[in-house]
Amino acid sequence: MLVALACALVLLPASAAAAEPAAAGDRGIVQLSKTPAAKVGAGEKAPARANASWVCNRQVTYPGPYYVDFTCTVYSGAIRAYVVCSDGAVFYSGTMYAGATYQMRGTCGPPWTVSTSGEQSLW
């Protein structure tokens, strides 16, 4: 009986193991890395009133999705990323300035999932 129980625990799918609630400090957007981008044009010298120019890739994992990974290269101006969680919580990243590539992770849970995510131009 004990051996069967031990085998059942070892063979649980990853989604069953990931069902624990996230601690309050585990929610939000965390910057994982920042690297200088190759020559990006005007960069930070662009006027503050100019619209930002950037390219972001977002990767979402399933089941869930409990988090979304962002990789953003900012060419001019400044942007921030955001995630909206299924419980209505909204989290914003720090400001991402021109001239660098940023990697971030926005986390909602479990048990909450990512409802939507994106980026906003700040200037």
Automatic annotation (TrEMBL):
Residues 1-18 form the signal peptide. Keywords: Signal. The keyword Signal applies. It comes from the Bacteria. This is Secreted protein. It comes from Streptomyces carminius.
